Amino acid sequence: MPNSISGFSKLSKSKKIDWIADSYFVDKELSKQILKQYWHSNPELQQLHDEFIENTITNYYLPLGVAPNFLINDTLYTLPMAIEESSVVAAASKAAKFWLDRGGFKAEVISTTKIGHVHFMYYGDIKILQQYFNAIKPQLISAVKSITKNMNRRGGGVTDITLINKTKALEGYYQLKVRFETLDAMGANFINSCLEQFAQTFRDSAKQYKMFTDGNADIKIVMSILSNYVPECLVKAEVSCPVAHLNEDKTVSPTQFAETFLQAVKIAEIEPYRAVTHNKGIMNGIDAVVLATGNDFRAIEACAHAYASRHGTYSSLTHASVEDGIFKFWIEIPLALGTVGGLTKLHPLVKLCMEMLQNPSARDLMQIVAVSGLAQNFAALRSLTTTGIQEGHMKMHLMNILNQNNASAAEKTSLIKHFKTNTVSHNAVIEALNRIRTTS
Ligand code: MEV
Fold first, then answer.
1. Spatial separation of the C-alpha atoms in residues 12 and 50, rounded to whole Å
2. Nearest by Cα to 307 from 85, 81, 111, 70
3. Of 96, 167, 101, 94, which Cα lies nearest the Cα of 129?
4. pLDDT of residue 31
5. Ligand 1 pocket, 373 CB below 6 A?
6. Tens digits of per-residue pLDDT, 210-247?
7. What is the mean pLDDT of residues 145-173?
8. pTM exceeds 0.85 for this model
9. Which end of the chain is more exposed for a tag (fewer CB within 10 A), N or C?
10. Which atom of ligand 1 is nearest to the CA of 381?
11. For residues 67 and 91, what is the distance between their CA atoms, to the nearest angstrom?
12. Which is the closest atom of ligand 1 to the Cα of 88?
């Protein structure tokens, strides 16, 4: 068992790697070489990455792909996508092209409110607490003036504070529920700074409030934190066309295609086992753009799944209908995204991705990301309900196996041709590769 270590964070990067190699790796020199091989040759750029987090030992590369031809509200976009999973970018591009010829995607931001809470305990008279809250509210707002000044100037800030009684669910539990408008910022630091100030003012002023008598004045702050659940930071994206125009793949009629597609969506609406996979496919498209634009994909994921469960069972994030011969497919999803602050101005690639997206506002980015999720889901359902997804996946899988086995360009050409008419499996590819190698 490796030894524990104290003072690890104070070691230099090389010494950290030495310790890890000594503790865990069989081939120490080779492992060190591999780790260092991913260091950037430009020391300044490397330092920038080192300082994003703590105890950085190297860089972990993900491919950055692009999916062109996304027509969104009559503007053409090329989406940057950072993702490790093969087929996602290809599927996005295919869906973009399909809808480009059918009027593109329409998207609209429904609301942009973010929420944070001061969670606190109080066991006294609720009426007095409510009176105290009403009296202190203006003071709470003025206590955060220095934090909100710039945001207010740009039209954002704190939009509302309410006292919420949660004692039915947990004895003594109350919240200050605060609503925020953070404009182009994701706003986590802004929101959390405001909340911590609210908590302090709320607790400290209670000590001087004359209506509170002994014991009643005990407001115990538990924590102050934004919520990543933002059901009022909502965006909708949609595609539609006459059913007759859905025809492309001649193996099924447009009507059959629409019918089976709608059934697939309905299944995801009522069956959580399917809904999770269905939404996972949506998140393939969403996370890839969220990551490429330096946003927090864990927050986006957590929120999306909570929203998918808002009616009590986990359900689909997309919906579809056919009315009067018109096929409609849409997504409604909360997305708290930022285009200023955080990594957006720090990471050189994120900056470029933003430029590729024509420097979107947070509202624009919400629309783009929602479209990416919808497109991905369209591509997945289209394959699943017609050819199945393995056909496309196996093509990518074939390339991965060939690359893992250092196939030459000639070997690749020959095996891609071979597997056009043969089923791809790991064994089949290895055997075919060995056959070529032993006969040449
Ligand atoms: C794979 O990453 C995503 C899919 O499974 C999504 C789906 O089933 O809808 C293809």
1. 11
2. 111
3. 167
4. 97
5. no
6. 777 665 568 999 999 999 999 999 999 999 999 999 97
7. 97
8. yes
9. N
10. 9
11. 9
12. 2
